[in-house]
Design brief:
Layout (H helix, E strand, L loop, with lengths): L6 H7 L4 E6 L7 H8 L3 E5 L7 H14 L2 E5 L5 H8 L5 E4 L5 H11 L23 H11 L1 E6 L2 H5 L1 H5 L6 E5 H8 L8 H17 L2 E5 L4 H10 L3 E6 H17 L4
Parallel strand pairs: 1-2, 1-8, 2-3, 3-4, 4-5, 5-6, 6-7, 7-8
Helix pairs in contact: 2-3, 4-5
């Protein structure tokens, strides 16, 4: 077994919520410790919508391993090296955005899993195993078992293909990118639209059918969060560092400006 088991995978497999904190602004290795202390289960290290490079993302991921919070990287694209370089450098999960078809989902698995499941290239000692020497056979088996492979569905086409995508062997989580989905539907920001609710029901049903885990991102209104968790959502992006900082900072300045002089 690895020195650093995948905490989020364990949470999901036991039927619990796995709650993530997004990283766009925070660039230091204490991100994992901060998130862990706040009660999060995983880091959403966002390389799609930030200037984070591979080296910085790797340093954050490796530091997170030691505190028991799962480092998950949203990669910026669908090339094999987008996923493999981060998996070789500490990530315990990969999120691939804008997956619309079965063929794209199959390529994601091919890039993130070792044979015989996928075609990820084999490397030597991994930080997820504390760099301990392991046979190639053991490395590939354990890494396949401990890695979370997550695809984002962000278009009406993707939602229509949700059942077939969830059926792809090697996919763990089907994650709705609600902001992009709403934009593609022509209803940006309208998270209460019936089409959004139907998309959530569709993904939850597909995941239940194939024993995968449904996930949600982009929705942070407490009543909506509670509603969709009630539908069966389990892999939850709970918010991001920038929004938390802005909310806390705004609350503090409003308090101070209200103090009597």
């Amino acid at each position: 077994m690895p020195i650093f088991p995948n905490h989020t995978k364990q949470q999901l497999e036991s039927g619990k919520l796995a709650i993530g904190m997004g990283l766009r602004a925070l660039r230091t290795s204490d991100a994992g410790m901060i998130a862990k202390t706040c009660g999060f289960d995983w880091l959403f290290i966002d390389m799609e919508h930030s200037a984070l490079d591979v080296d910085t993302a790797s340093q954050i991921a490796i530091a997170a391993l030691a505190v028991g919070i799962t480092p998950i990287v949203r990669v910026p694209g669908k090339e094999h090296h987008h996923a493999s370089r981060l998996l070789d450098s500490g990530a315990q999960g990969i999120v691939v955005p804008h997956v619309d078809t079965v063929e794209e989902a199959q390529r994601v698995v091919a890039h993130c899993r070792y044979p015989p499941v996928g075609h990820r290239s084999v490397v030597g000692a991994l930080p997820q195993f504390g760099y301990q020497p392991m046979s190639v056979g053991e490395t590939t088996i354990v890494a396949n078992a401990e890695t979370l492979v997550i695809v984002m569905l962000e278009t009406p086409l993707a939602i229509r293909n949700a059942d077939a995508i969830a059926a792809v062997p090697g996919i763990d989580v089907v994650l709705i990118g609600t902001n992009d989905l709403c934009a593609e539907l022509g209803i940006p920001g309208q998270f209460v639209d019936p089409r959004v609710e139907e998309a959530y029901r569709t993904v939850v049903a597909a995941c239940k059918k194939y024993n995968k885990h449904p996930g949600m991102g982009g929705v942070y209104d407490p009543p909506l969060l509670e509603k969709y968790i009630g539908y069966g959502m389990r892999f939850i992006l709970g918010g991001g560092d920038l929004s938390f900082l802005m909310a806390g900072g705004k609350a503090r300045t409003e308090f101070l400006r209200g103090c009597k002089m």
